[in-house]
Design goal:
By secondary structure, the chain is an alpha/beta fold. Helices cover about 70% and strands about 10% of the residues. Among the domains are: about 90 residues; about 140 residues, Trna Endonuclease, Chain: A, domain 1 (3-Layer(aba) Sandwich). It has a six-stranded mixed β-sheet, sandwiched between helices. Strands 1-2 form a two-stranded antiparallel sheet. About 0% of the residues have low confidence.
Length: about 425
């Protein structure tokens, strides 16, 4: 308990510790707030005084700096005016000097231009004279070329007329030739004609085969087969020929395209690379009369020709095939290498398969052996455990036998105890 004396009446009274702390706290809070308000008011006054002093100081300092800057600006303006005046005088002097120099240069340039104009006029005159000479020369050359062109035109016209005359004569010959023969003889005569044409040039085809196709095992045959080989016996090119002709008076006129499908079939059955129809059909059709007609857009490597192109076509196809012979040899070499590689791979795969099979069998046997060993080990372990168990039982039995005494045997058995006592007395 705490005692408190009233400052007015002087009376002393006691209050509890809790009430005493509450009163002290109230007094302390009131004094603290009073002091805090006083300090806050004093802080505001000090702050306002400091701001006023700072503002006065800054205004004074700014006024001094402003006066200093105005003095510097005035000084710089004066210096700038002096510099401008000096620069202006220098520039005027320099401009006058450059103007005098340029005037001299202009006078010199005018003089040079006059000289150049004179040289240009002289050069133009010389060029015009040279061009006139060239024009005269070109006119003379043009007249000469015109005469040569007219001469060439005349020669070409005469040559064309000669060729046209030969074609007309050849056409008349074939028409007369067909008119004088039967239908069967017409076809045979065309075949004989082509055969004679080839035989005349056979020495040029030393490794070539050219003969009639007599093989009818597939049900059809062509007329002639041409095969050419190199010195090593490698086939260069092969051509299946079919010869077609008919008389003018034949009632049913055939077209070349009627025989292309059968020719392509014969070519494939006889394993020939090219197929050629030698034809006198559609004798008035300029499409076939102009030269070698390529029918590859319908059947691969197929041509239709007139008899006069028989040998040229063979030569052309053979030349192209000879150029590609090196590629064929390389292809054959690569093919053989691929075959060797295939055989090697087959042997290697066979070895791998055999090895894998033997390894699999050996692995299976090994696993079985391991399993049998595990079984044997398990069996021996069981036997070992049984023996150990038997040993323990024997040890226990032995211990029991060692601990066995007459006293233990006769325990709780009065009859046996009495009998053993009697035996002891007798002995």
């Amino acid at each position: 308990m705490n005692e408190i004396k009233c400052p007015k009446c002087g009376t002393t009274f006691q209050i509890s510790e809790e009430n005493y702390d509450s009163i002290v706290k109230q007094i302390r809070d009131r004094e603290f707030e009073k002091e805090l308000a006083h300090q806050e008011e004093q802080y505001k006054k000090d702050k306002e005084n400091a701001i006023k002093i700072t503002e006065a100081t800054l205004e004074k300092k700014l006024a001094e700096e402003l006066n200093q800057k105005e003095l510097e600006i005035t000084k710089l303006e004066n210096e700038l005016k002096i510099k401008e005046e000096e620069t202006k005088n220098k520039l005027e002097k320099k401009f006058l000097e450059e103007l005098n120099q340029k005037s001299s240069e202009i006078v010199e340039l005018k003089h040079q231009i006059e000289l150049k104009d004179n040289e240009k006029e002289l050069a133009i005159k010389n060029t015009l004279l040279e061009k006139d000479k060239q024009i005269d020369s070109l006119n003379n050359e043009l007249l000469l070329n015109k005469s040569e062109f007219q001469l060439k035109e005349k020669n070409i016209k005469e040559s064309y007329e000669e060729k046209l005359k030969n074609k007309e004569e050849q056409l008349a010959y074939y028409k007369d030739f067909k008119a004088r023969q039967s239908t069967k003889m017409i076809g045979e005569s065309l075949e004989q004609h082509c055969n004679n044409e080839f035989n005349q040039l056979r020495p040029l085809f030393k490794n070539s085969y050219f003969d009639k196709d007599n093989d009818i095992k597939t049900g059809s045959k062509g007329d002639f087969i041409f095969r050419d080989f190199d010195d090593d016996g490698l086939e260069i090119v092969s051509i299946m020929f079919e010869m077609k002709n008919e008389a003018d008076e034949t009632s049913s006129k055939h077209k070349n395209e009627d025989f292309l499908k059968e020719l392509d079939k014969d070519r494939n059955e006889k394993n020939c690379e090219y197929a050629v129809l030698v034809s006198l059909l559609e004798i008035d059709n300029e499409y076939y009369n102009n030269g070698i007609v390529d029918m590859s857009y319908k059947y691969p490597k197929m041509y239709v020709i007139r008899p006069q192109f028989f040998i040229p076509l063979i030569t052309l196809i053979r030349s192209m095939a000879i150029k590609s012979l090196d590629y064929k040899k390389e292809l054959e070499l690569v093919k053989n290498q691929n075959i060797d590689i295939a055989h090697f791979e087959e042997n290697m795969n066979s070895f791998k398969d055999g090895f894998a099979r033997n390894y699999r069998l050996a692995s299976d046997k090994f696993k079985k052996a391991i399993e049998e060993i595990d079984k044997t080990i398990d069996h021996l372990q069981k036997t070992k455990d049984a023996l150990i168990s038997s040993e323990n039982n024997l040890r226990l039995a032995n211990n029991k036998a060692k601990d066995l005494t007459i006293k233990k045997l006769t325990h709780n058995s009065e009859t046996m105890a009495k009998m053993f006592d009697e035996l002891k007395q007798v002995s």
